[in-house]
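Dear support,

Our group has been running a series of protein-ligand predictions, and this particular one with NAP is the one our PI (initials K.S.) wants archived with full inputs and outputs. We had some confusion internally about which version of the output was final, so please treat the block below as the authoritative record. The input we submitted was:
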Amino acid sequence: MPSHDIALIGLGVMGQNLVLNMDRHGFAVAVYNRTRSVTEQFMAERAAGTAVIGCFEPAELAAALKPPRRILLMVKAGGPVDAVIQQLRPHLQPGDVLIDGGNSHFADTARRSKDLEADGLRYLGVGISGGEEGALYGPSIMPGGPPAAYETVRPIFEAIAARADDGAPCVAYLGPLGAGHYVKMVHNGIEYAVMQLIAEIYDLLRRGLGTSAEALARTFAEWNRGELASYLMEITAAVLRRQDPLTGQPITEVILDSAEQKGTGRWTVQEALEMGVPIPTISAAVEARGLSALKAQRLAASRLLHGPQPGEPPAREAVEAAARQALYAGTVCAYAQGMALLQRASGERDFGIDLAETARIWRAGCIIRAAMLEDIRRAYAAESSLSSLLTASPFREALGEMNAGWRQALETSLRLGIPTPSGSASLAYYDAMRSARLPANLTQAQRDYFGAHTYQRLDREGAFHTDWLAEG
Ligand SMILES: NC(=O)c1ccc[n+]([C@@H]2O[C@H](COP(=O)([O-])OP(=O)(O)OC[C@H]3O[C@@H](n4cnc5c(N)ncnc54)[C@H](OP(=O)(O)O)[C@@H]3O)[C@@H](O)[C@H]2O)c1
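Confirmed final output from the archive:
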């Protein structure tokens, strides 16, 4: 007799914890993993004493589920998702719901969804954020796909999702096809940007001013109690506090300065270019990881290239106060860019994503959860077609008040030769957005000069061309 509510395939870090989360909330879960020993070990250890059952064949898994079957895939994105779908397909029936909870590309999700629809199978692409702990105690869940299919998993998702301060579960239906994975992709793009902004401020204070890791841990912990309160701030303080057991030094001093990436940041930038939405803070963060990975080249060049001469060290307290403002302002820019991309894609790709709902479900459980998300939610709830988050209260006022500090922190970094790719990109974004007139008039004239591309005028309609080689 089929008796189980949901199946999960892929007992990696996320999969195992999601299973235990669902079990804790009273759902009967059946699990399957490609490598048999992983299932055996999970059943013998972490799932011991739970109602979870281990299956060793896709057919066995399918037979254990109540109709319509709900099967959550938590495998590596890309080929593995297609491989698992092909294995399962012969054992499924029309109406069954497959859910991809991994970090799949939204276009792959749309392709799989259309393909499975031919057999009457329903497909949900669901972004899940929160890492190991979030998966176990409450992630932020970003589902997309057919609305009726979402209704079949909604009670489960609402039970296992994180809860924000108002008690609302951090999950909401976001739109058709790849809308959920799209929102997760942009979430990760913002995550890249905020992490880079924090790293730049850390660099300014640690390398530029020589502040110790322990003192910085206290600074970030203090900032985490105010307008910058966020999960990334909290873990930054914890990371800086941690000692290396091998050397007794702060662990950050012995970790190789070469950052890795799995692709969601790059996808966000590629998609933004495709959509024509500028996201310079996020792009710079992806580039910064690329620069960090050039460790050997940087080492070689560091012996050859000169920077500024060390002068009088700036007053620490003033720089710290300015750095706090620069971090807040840069973070607002990262969110503004991510939301602008979601807004454009929502129309162009027919996702119909509700930006207030998106901000709402990011308030807890996910990696970018932050106090400012409630302000972002309010801004889009008040005006869903807001043209830029920068112009909404309280951000407009805050960025105005913090302007001097923001610039001062970046000036200090420049003077000390500390790179601030995302911080500088944020200020340039802000300055460009508040410029009623930019120098693109000159760019247009140059394009018309060498390519007769024509230009438009401020004072009359139409396309104009100048014969640049004629006497003016
Ligand atoms: N880790 C995180 O913090 C996090 C956060 C959010 C989202 N995600 C996303 O969630 C998904 C799962 O991530 P994860 O970190 O838990 O694990 P992962 O390392 O990405 O994936 C491991 C799982 O995928 C299975 N797998 C790999 N190739 C397979 C194939 N060809 N056929 C069948 N199964 C295959 C593995 O099975 P075997 O045991 O047989 O190798 C294992 O169960 C990924 O898409 C990831 O990007 C991860």
